[in-house]
Amino acid sequence: MVGLHESDVKYGGFVVAAIGFLGTRYTVLESIDASSTLTEFLVGQAAFLVLGLGLTVFGIGLAVSSYDETFVNTVAAWSVLGTLSMVIVLVLTLTGTEDAAQLTEFTRSALVANVLIGGSVGGVLTGIRAAMNKRHRRELSKQADRLTVLNRILRHEVLNKVNVIRGYADLDVAEQTTGSSNLQVIQRNADRIDTSISELRAIVGPASEGPVSTRVYPRLRSAINEVRTSYPNASISLDADAPAETRVVADAHLDTAFRHLLENAVVHAGIDDPRVSVRVSSHDTHITVDITDEGPGIPENVAAVVEERDLPEYDDPTTGFGLTLVRLLVVDKYGGSVDVETTEDGSVVTVSLAHSTDNVVDDSSGYGIPPWILVITAAAALVSGVAMGAVSELLTDSFAIIGALYGVMNAGVGWVTHLFHSVVFGLLFAAAVCNSDPWSATRHPAVMTGLGVAYGLFLWFFAAGIVMPLWLQLVGIEATVPTLAVPSLVAHAVWGAVFGTLFGLGVNRRR
Known about the structure:
- By secondary structure, the protein is α+β, with helices and mostly antiparallel strands.
- The protein has helices at 11-28, 38-44, 46-64, 69-96, 105-169, 179-204, 216-230, 254-267, 300-307, 322-333, 371-395, 400-404, 411-434, 438-442, 445-474, 486-510; strands at residues 212-215, 235-240, 247-250, 275-282, 286-292, 337-343, 346-354.
């Protein structure tokens, strides 16, 4: 699974979260009547509070998700645009309408709060739609590239070979003086057709055949051995700096990409006994495979095929289709990259592939937490938040004090903000787990439950025992630091147990 690292955080998500939180804190919460009953709160005031805090959670989820940065930034931009649009509408409405002066301060605050949150949410929904359309256009572009290559391979690699086979098969037996040679030609071309069909499956196979966790060394050694067999005069060395069990985001066709790069290095070396060196290096988020040759270098127009997105419009079969297949596999399918560097001594082709563990989940084109784990996290956090709330109500009946953190001493506000905190802390837990290897833990429910309880006790000590009383002091409510009450400990332990169990079961079941 792809982990979460500091460089993988999408800061556009925090823009969405900030809009949601600030809009909620300084508009929605300011318009809530603290003396209202729970029923009055749920009927008239809860909806926009839930929307605002939900927008905050959504932004945090975007920031740590595996969605690519372009997707997240598009959503953030539309969120800002939606909010600013509503600000302009409100200013024009309140300043240009005579009846606006007759509105009470409370009514004016509620109007501002509801309109701004509505604009923010509307902007986010529009941004999601725009980002999905943009991603769909990119997928269509990739599909067009694959179809272009399919057409070229069928014409140049398959049809030409079929014509050769047909020509030799139609030779009159009495005229054949080198029948054995003819049969070898037929066999060689038939083998080439078989190889071409296998390569076609690699790039135009079913959409369900996505990347999986793949051990890099067996695939690399398979490619090296195959090229050594085809070109016995070539010398290919392997320098392995990465661990033997290194896994990357790829599939069973990874050796095809390596084989084409190695063949390109050998065939175009321009000498009878070419030497090629392969070096595997491990980095924080990815591995690199450097293939170095002593040839004249890869022409700029050929290098552009593997480095850029667009395929050339011209059809040049003399260059082969190997590097195009490498681009379609490594860049488009695996989400990696290929860089070409030409020096006076030859060429260096660097393939970068993301690290993975023993499983790769869908949406692996980017780093971070896959969306389905975010959904499981939110659901588990809400259920565990309700369980914790029920225990807290039974033991202390103190939910109004949570609302006081946001300036409203109200039980309804306390419940909503409590569930908001539960989801946020759940997302932090998921980010920490996904930064390592969650699969070994989620296979054992008792282990995940124990991790959840430990995390809940940490929150009891740090968040509830230290941060919360300090926060209460800042808003003018007397509180002791630290506040380490036994009922709170029990409630947090229940939260951790329920959350850890549900999170583990959900992830393991989906896996």
